[in-house]
């Protein structure tokens, strides 16, 4: 164990009392010696006085032991006789245990050794403690005087507070007589040794000529000097302030930090000073020799942020005045700063000193805080640290802490509170409530992990001990994993036992979830009536995208959806959106189920046609969640946003979101809802021209129950699009037709997948059945006049199958519809078609603008290849004419021109395009319209072409260019 002072220069070798100086610390010996000796004066000056009593006073690590070691070295070097001993707490009850150490000092005269031995042997066995025979004391003193007569003598006593009573009485006897006989005495005490009223210590201090020397802390300049020798001037200047702050000016701690810095090597300017093994060892070693101070530090470490001197005293069952005195001493020594620890790594090291006592201290700390009415989180952290079965009276405290931790995003600690509460002696109903809360919390992390607790909760429900909230939770979990028989059982119990007029928000959320997971059950009259009560009691005015300022979040303005944000978040939102975006990440976290917070909100917006707002809501909710917490909720939000981005015609972002969702939550944890991210990925990769990757997602197994959920049609549509893309329109049509809703409510569409009719129309068109395509497109248009992606698709189909004179009207209506639906890729495709119509009608300026916008939208979505170019590209290079094919199936040598010049005649790219169209018998005006250039520019290009190719007539161009007429 490293001792005070010695820890700066040397460490005790394990199992011996010898000291060694590590090579890396040798270079700092001179600087440390000077720093330690400054407050006490140079020991050689005291030794040379040849008489006197010097009392060294200082806290742990302030250099008392170092000073005595240095005094011993100097005394021996100056031929003084040096007697030295140390008080040990474990030997406090052994008579003359300290003076007995003099016998083992090498080089002392035999007369002194014999006198000490007689005193120790006879007094220890024959005399009550503290009453040494005067004759033996006189013999010892005479021997000491005789030995000191010529050379002088130095007596050094370290940790004198632990001297046994006999040794202390003998020391006083010698001290009263030593000053006039060339005997110098140096005795080291802790800072509070003369404040506790112990008479013999006061007697020593009150002797004539006694001098009290107090240790002082190092200044920042002193620390800089130490650092310069060990680390160099540049690093010393930068690190002096933080090292001085962390060490509190304590020499032992400062030197230990220097050793840690050497081990760490170079650290960046903004990197905190590392606290390593050397610092922790020096800190604990200093406390080990001061048990009262150590207990105070341990109490403060156990109490943590709730530590006060009064609470520490209560925890230790000690006098508040004593505890305050210990804290002051620790602050003076640099072990504490302003009543707290100087570095966050220190409390953990201190608690590591405690064994079985640690749990007891935490339990007592919890009881203390409960009695004071402290916050639940403060009490819970001690109960968790104690890991003992709690009393039933503490369960409400743990449950309050669970809720607060869940709101704060600390799911692991929240679960720990509930599991600890579950160990208490509880009634069956209260245990069922805690089990429901465990399920509730686990579904935020991974719904599958809640399966054991779900089994317990289901048993409680069957025994009639589960409340309505627990029943709703059970229904949701069971349906999530497709366990419909049990879900129906619990749902029947819910309808029969729970008042439908209560908890409307939760019932609406559960209804939205059921409509996704098992819409068929909502056809039951009793179930439908139960949920309709909640839906009818909260009708609010319809909102629209145009009425909402772009700088605000629409959800806050919706009466129905305001509950989806936490109350704090809802109240704090204001016009300054940037300011609100900087709020704490936990502002949108509360203890409600995530399907109530997220799924119900997004579905309601999708059903209202507010797809862009649903996208914004998903993104805002994800950014407001802690990044490393609630993986299941993060995954659901990512999958929902992927679905929404797919509806907005953005397959690239959609695939990124869905891929992130599957990475956050394993497929087994998705249950029936796995169809959501998989359908997004299949559809997105199909649109992005990567059907092989889409096929890999199609190979993944899905639960059978998914097909009867609302995720089934989503998956079928994605599969149908894949089949259509890969040339199997008949199979694709079967998948689209299978999406037709079943049951009485044929308008049910919670996930916004009613576009199956438009997709079916596209399949019919690919099969060469325009009348069937028109019928499906008309059926889609009858679903409502709200702007949707499906409606835009249907209008595109009509533009193909209806009369040519109606094409522009259909496409322009499709453009308005898709702009209102914010559906970017379908809009790009419609704009590309409209540019063709404009080009054919001679509206070149409008055609150019629409084509540019189409290209921009398609590029933003990552699928520019999905656009079918007009007869000739507008602002892109023309696709060159197909080359003439020579015999053998190989193209003739006169193929398409390179990008800048041709091999024959050196035509530029622009000249090649004009010449190609001229060779195809286009007029100059037609060429100008097709290339969006003026007729004059066409004439100039042709003039240069004729000159380079040495031709006079347009009819000569096909042969020279290698083109078929």
TrEMBL record:
GO biological process, one term: regulation of DNA-templated transcription
Keyword set, alphabetical order: DNA-binding, Transcription, Transcription regulation
InterPro entries, per database record: AAA_16, P-loop_NTPase, Sig_transdc_resp-reg_C-effctor, TPR-like_helical_dom_sf, Tscrpt_reg_LuxR_C, WH-like_DNA-bd_sf
Domain HTH luxR-type: from-to ranges: 900-965
Top-level division of the source organism's lineage: Bacteria
GO MF annotations, alphabetized: DNA binding
Region feature (Disordered): 866-905
Protein name listed in UniProt: Helix-turn-helix transcriptional regulator
Organism: Streptomyces ipomoeae
Taxonomic lineage of the native organism: Bacteria, Bacillati, Actinomycetota, Actinomycetes, Kitasatosporales
């Amino acid at each position: 164990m490293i001792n005070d002072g010695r820890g700066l220069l040397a460490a005790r070798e394990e199992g011996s009392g010898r000291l060694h100086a590590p090579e890396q610390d040798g270079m700092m010996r001179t600087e440390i010696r000077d720093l330690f000796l400054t407050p006490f004066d140079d020991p050689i000056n005291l030794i040379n006085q040849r008489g006197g009593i010097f009392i060294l006073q200082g806290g742990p690590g302030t250099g008392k032991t170092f000073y005595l070691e240095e005094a011993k070295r100097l005394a021996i070097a100056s031929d003084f006789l040096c007697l030295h001993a140390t008080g040990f707490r474990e030997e406090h009850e052994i008579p003359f245990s300290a003076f007995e150490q003099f016998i083992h000092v090498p080089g002392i005269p035999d007369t002194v050794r014999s006198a000490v031995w007689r005193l120790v042997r006879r007094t220890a066995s024959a005399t009550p403690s503290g009453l040494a025979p005067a004759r033996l004391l006189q013999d010892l003193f005479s021997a000491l005087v005789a030995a000191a007569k010529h050379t002088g003598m130095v007596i050094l006593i370290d940790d004198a507070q632990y001297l046994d009573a006999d040794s202390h009485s003998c020391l006083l006897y010698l001290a009263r007589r030593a000053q006039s006989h060339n005997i110098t005495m140096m005795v080291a005490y802790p800072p509070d040794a003369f404040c506790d009223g112990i008479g013999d210590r006061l007697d020593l201090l009150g002797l004539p000529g006694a001098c009290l020397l107090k240790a002082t802390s190092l200044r920042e300049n002193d620390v800089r000097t130490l650092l310069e020798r060990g680390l160099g001037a540049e690093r010393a200047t930068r690190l002096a302030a933080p090292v001085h702050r962390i060490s509190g000016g304590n020499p032992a701690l400062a030197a230990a930090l220097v050793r840690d810095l050497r081990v760490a090597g170079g650290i960046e300017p903004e990197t905190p000073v590392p606290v390593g093994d050397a610092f922790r060892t020096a800190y604990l070693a200093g406390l080990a020799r001061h048990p009262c101070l150590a207990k105070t530090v341990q109490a403060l470490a156990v109490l943590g942020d709730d530590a006060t001197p009064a609470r520490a005293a209560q925890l230790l069952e000690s006098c508040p005045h004593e505890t305050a005195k210990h804290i002051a001493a620790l602050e003076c020594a640099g072990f504490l700063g302003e009543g707290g620890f100087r570095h966050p790594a220190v409390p953990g090291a201190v608690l590591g000193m405690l064994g079985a006592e640690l749990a007891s201290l935490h339990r007592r700390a919890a009881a203390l805080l409960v009695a004071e009415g402290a916050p639940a989180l403060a009490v819970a952290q001690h109960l968790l640290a104690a890991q003992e079965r709690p009393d039933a009276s503490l369960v409400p405290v743990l449950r309050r802490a669970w809720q607060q931790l869940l709101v704060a995003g600390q799911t692991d600690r929240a679960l720990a509170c509930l599991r600890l509460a579950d160990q208490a002696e509880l009634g069956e109903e209260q245990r069922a409530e805690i089990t429901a809360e465990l399920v509730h919390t686990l579904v935020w992390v991974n719904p599958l992990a809640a399966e054991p607790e779900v089994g317990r909760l289901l048993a409680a429900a069957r025994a009639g001990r589960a409340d309505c909230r627990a029943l709703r939770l059970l229904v949701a979990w069971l349906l999530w994993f497709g366990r419909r028989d049990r879900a129906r059982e619990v749902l029947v119990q819910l309808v029969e036992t729970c008042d439908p007029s209560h908890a409307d928000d939760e019932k609406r959320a559960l209804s939205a979830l059921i409509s996704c997971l098992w819409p068929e059950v909502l056809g039951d009259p009793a179930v439908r009536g139960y949920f309709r009560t909640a839906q009818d009691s909260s009708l609010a005015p319809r909102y629209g995208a145009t009425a909402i300022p772009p700088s605000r979040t629409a959800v806050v303005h919706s009466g129905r959806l305001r509950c989806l944000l936490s109350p704090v978040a809802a109240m704090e939102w204001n016009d300054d959106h940037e300011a609100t975006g900087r709020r704490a990440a936990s502002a949108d976290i509360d203890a409600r189920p995530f399907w109530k917070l997220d799924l119900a909100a997004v579905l309601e917006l999708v059903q209202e046609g507010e797809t862009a707002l649903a996208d914004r809501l998903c993104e805002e909710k994800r950014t407001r969640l802690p990044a490393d917490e609630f993986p299941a909720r993060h995954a659901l939000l990512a999958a929902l946003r992927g679905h929404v981005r797919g509806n907005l015609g953005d397959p690239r972002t959609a695939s990124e979101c869905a891929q992130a969702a599957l990475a956050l939550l394993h497929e087994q944890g998705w249950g029936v809802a796995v169809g959501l991210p998989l359908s997004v990925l299949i559809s997105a990769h199909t649109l992005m021209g990567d059907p092989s990757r889409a096929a890999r997602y199609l190979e993944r197994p899905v639960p059978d129950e998914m097909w009867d959920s609302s995720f089934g049609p989503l998956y079928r549509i994605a599969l149908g699009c894949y089949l259509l893309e890969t040339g199997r329109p008949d199979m694709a049509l079967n998948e689209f037709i299978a999406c037709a809703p079943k049951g009485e409510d044929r308008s049910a569409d919670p996930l916004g997948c009613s576009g199956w009719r438009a997709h079916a129309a596209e399949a019919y068109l690919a099969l060469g059945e325009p009348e069937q395509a028109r019928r499906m497109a008309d059926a889609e248009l009858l679903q409502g006049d709200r702007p949707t992606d499906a409606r835009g698709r249907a209008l595109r189909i009509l533009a193909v199958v209806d009369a040519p004179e109606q094409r522009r009207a259909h496409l322009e209506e499709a453009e308005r519809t898709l702009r209102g639906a914010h559906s970017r890729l379908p809009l790009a495709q419609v704009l590309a078609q409209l540019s063709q119509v404009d080009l054919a009608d001679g509206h070149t300026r409008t055609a150019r603008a629409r084509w540019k916008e189409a290209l921009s939208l398609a590029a933003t979505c990552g699928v520019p290849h999905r656009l079918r170019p007009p007869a000739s590209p507008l602002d892109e290079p023309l696709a060159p004419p197909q080359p003439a094919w020579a015999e053998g199936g190989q193209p003739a040598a006169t193929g398409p021109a390179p990008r800048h010049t041709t091999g024959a005649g050196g035509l530029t790219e622009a000249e090649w395009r004009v010449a190609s169209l001229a060779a195809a018998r286009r007029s100059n005006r037609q060429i100008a319209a097709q290339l969006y250039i003026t007729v004059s520019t066409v004439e100039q290009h042709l003039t240069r072409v004729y000159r380079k190719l040495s031709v006079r007539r347009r009819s000569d161009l096909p042969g020279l260019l290698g083109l078929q007429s």
